[in-house]
Amino acid sequence: METESAKIHLSVDCTVLGFDGERLEVLLIRRTGVEGGEEFHDMKLPGSVIVDGEELDDAARRVLTELTGLKNVPLTQFHAFGSPDRTKDPRDIHWLEATQQMHVGRTVTIGYMALVKIGRSIMGDMEGTEALWVPVDKLPPLAFDHNQIIAEAVKMLRTLASMDPSMLYALMPRKFTVTQLRNLYEVVFGVRLDPANFYKKMVQMPYIVPLEEREKGVAHRAARYYRFDKNTYNKTRI
Amino acid sequence: METESAKIHLSVDCTVLGFDGERLEVLLIRRTGVEGGEEFHDMKLPGSVIVDGEELDDAARRVLTELTGLKNVPLTQFHAFGSPDRTKDPRDIHWLEATQQMHVGRTVTIGYMALVKIGRSIMGDMEGTEALWVPVDKLPPLAFDHNQIIAEAVKMLRTLASMDPSMLYALMPRKFTVTQLRNLYEVVFGVRLDPANFYKKMVQMPYIVPLEEREKGVAHRAARYYRFDKNTYNKTRI
DNA sequence: GATTCAAATTGTATTAAACACAATAACAAA
DNA sequence: TTTGTTATTGTGTTTAATACAATTTGAATC
Fold this sequence. Notes:
2 copies of one chain form a homodimer.
Chain A: E1 9-19, E2 24-35, E3 38-44, E4 47-49, H1 56-68, E5 76-81, H2 90-100, E6 107-115, E7 131-135, H3 146-163, H4 178-189, H5 195-203, E8 208-214, E9 224-228, H6 230-236
Parallel strand pairs in A: 1-6
Antiparallel strand pairs in A: 1-2, 1-4, 2-3, 2-7, 5-6, 8-9
The structure holds a DNA duplex.
């Protein structure tokens, strides 16, 4: 009668994406483990086992704050990863046993994603964890199935942004040039856009407000800075 | 050290949607339980606890076949429901204990959805379970948080179909009139569409192939039947 | 069998958006 | 002052979306 009561553990993992003006980056934390008597270092997504009685969304928020210092980040659940094989790597098994103080069998994780301005302050170092930004197209092998989770998160970003591109402004710095914005569109959708047409289309939007400030130190005509006005944007939506 | 190892159970629930030419329906199974000495009857989504070592996708497929007889239905994971409160109703607790032969604490469920032609044969009755179609806008209170799960599934259908309307043909019968197709668009997107413009737009698609057969028994000009040609559709896509 | 009804189907015009691409402006470095 | 490079502006073409009038037709009614 215990056939189906597999000892399943549940965790959350947060894929926090940022944009540096050129490409997408993801927020990872360093991991140190021991395998075969040798210490090794690699990286993983900020994530952890959920606490008794905790809502999934709350768990994601808590874990992200604990491991990166980020607060008030809108997190969105996007996929559950539950393959029995996802915790089969001896490195991962031993690391789990060491950190959880117990034997951990199959673990299903709920993937959350968030878009943040890459300039936001994260904890460089706290409680032994260190967070850092890594370009998503230059990821080394990560712990567990975290490479796959990130790939799915980026795919979800594409899907969501194609329905509502305004969510992309969460990735842009407070002031930005139209070219930076175009770069984001191009990297997210994997296309090349005509600079002239993109410029005209964006500048006509009432919620893209021009600033007086211009680019400095570029070897060509300096671009104007703009900012995204959320209030105006919401008013244009019904 | 057992603080966070909550005894969590994991299940899958399948939201199978169909279209009867007028409105969306969902496939439910009857449930019989006992509460306060009284037998009660209500309905729930086809779903169950996952088996040891089973892939999530496999579990969803298996459960759907076992409870409804449906096979080869493309299931898509769409959301995890894990509120600690979702299994707090005494009816649900007692029903779980009776069917699972054990005490069941918190249960997190992974929601799957599928689109099927409503004419497909389902098991009217087997292993004590009976499946039936119920309009999504006329649902009674269901077991657990299944009303909420269905609402999320319909929302997801909207989202996905707005990106790729071709998925809607999975809901249409093999032969259909343009008006039936328009009804589906209208109910899914919650809008009213101009019959003339919709007609022209659809008929010009190479993958909407006209049949010789026409509607019968209607008190007005009989509409032509069409069918969706998947091959042609795939060729028009890169 | 002629007439009527309601929806299917066809026609036509307007409007808005997407797209291609040439031309001009402006900043920093040489 | 000239050059290189990107920002910004201009213009025309193409395509898609939308509105709405007009015509066709199967079945029911008179």
